[in-house]
Amino acid sequence: MLKLRHVKDTTILYVCLHLYGRRLRVASPHVPLIRVIISEIRRMLMEYEDGDANPVDSSELSSVSSTVSSIFSSSDIDVSSNISIASSSSDEILAAAVVPLTLAVEEQGEEGGVTRRLKKCVGRNKGVAWGFKSVIGRRKEMEDAVAVVPGFMSHTCDHVGGCTNPGSEVSPIHFFGVYDGHGGSQVAKFCAERMHEVIAEEWDQEASNGYKWQQRWESVMSSSFERADNEVLTEAAAPEIVGSTAVAVVLSGCQIIVSNCGDSRAVLFRGTETIPLTVDQKPDREDELSRIEEQDGKVIHWNGARVFGVLAMSRAIGDRYLRPWIIPVPEITFTTRTNEDECLIIASDGLWDVMSNTEVGEVARRILRRRRHCAASDVPAAQILADSLTEIAVGRNSSDNISVVVVDLKSKRKQQHI
């Protein structure tokens, strides 16, 4: 257990993390040493927080005190400017540094000792690595579209809602979307370009009005899907016979918020658990069948259950010619993140038609855990997994376009990145 027995140790830890949260303008041979010190302290903190670390004595921190002090006093270090959220590559989102450090003191035993325990959101100080693959498969046309928008919003985690550590600092909120078009690619492409913008705009416009955070998000997501659907019509983005599924994921430091129309799917893999975050909206699903038939619609089994024998889903963006039976009303789920979360996979039915949630989970755990223990690679584990799942789906003769987005939710330490 990490024990900070001296004020000096706490100060060193605070200053190191503070320095990590600033942009350094250093023209000095001390730069590599600074990075090593920061990385080592960050590693110890992450191991302590995850509960899988060996006992670390304060002497480990004290041993670097003189070196750190001399570096911090160097006149050629400028810590005056704030860090900006950036990615080290196209598929790795660095977490925002958090300053100041929040400490909570707990009494321990009768000896009067204290333990300093870090308090923070689950996703705080953890990078989010991602990868995606989108292929035409055996179809003649590509009708899928994918959107990955790191930092599409920036708010405090408790402002977004569901925060496990209220009072946290501003951090980036990430967006991931998969859109499976039918009748053409126009609506899917429109959603990929526009949906995340609409959600951000609706969030800014939606006053809390005393709503609970979940109610606010439900209102935002519902109005965003309706607005995107209306814009397809008003901007003449697509003919009335064209539509698309839409599964939109908002990822904060503490929550995974999923809004879904259609039969694309989002699944969370947590430890050994497989947790579906969406339920396919099929015409023969009992509640959907009742809704369609109550409005004098028909579900005909023609190569599977289809609305009027045409569409194999009961909700979508677009498809105006099938109103009121096909509606753009999303189903929304909220899932609190934990340290056990392995990854989130969002994919079109080109994957799910040939692989079950369980099969995907087995492949995901095997590949991610193996890659995390390999030497550092230029290709993130999430990208390797997305490529592998796509190859498996093609090998199993998936007849549809295949789009897979993988979000690796494990900490940077466990990915062996510095």
What can you see in these coordinates?
The protein has 11 helices and 20 strands. The chain is of the alpha+beta class. The chain folds into 2 domains: 7-90 and 98-118, no CATH class; 128-408, Phosphatase 2c, domain 1. Helix content is 33%, strand content 26%.
What's the SSE blueprint?
Elements: H1 7-20, E1 25-26, H2 31-50, H3 59-62, H4 65-72, E2 77-78, E3 87-89, E4 92-93, E5 103-108, E6 113-118, E7 128-135, E8 144-156, H5 157-160, E9 170-182, H6 186-205, H7 213-234, E10 243-244, E11 246-251, E12 255-261, E13 265-270, E14 273-276, H8 286-294, E15 299-301, E16 305-307, E17 317-318, E18 331-336, E19 341-347, H9 349-352, H10 357-372, H11 381-395, E20 402-408
Antiparallel strand pairs: 1-2, 3-4, 4-7, 5-6, 7-20, 8-9, 9-10, 9-11, 10-17, 11-12, 12-18, 13-14, 13-19, 15-16, 19-20
Helix pairs in contact: 1-2, 6-7, 10-11
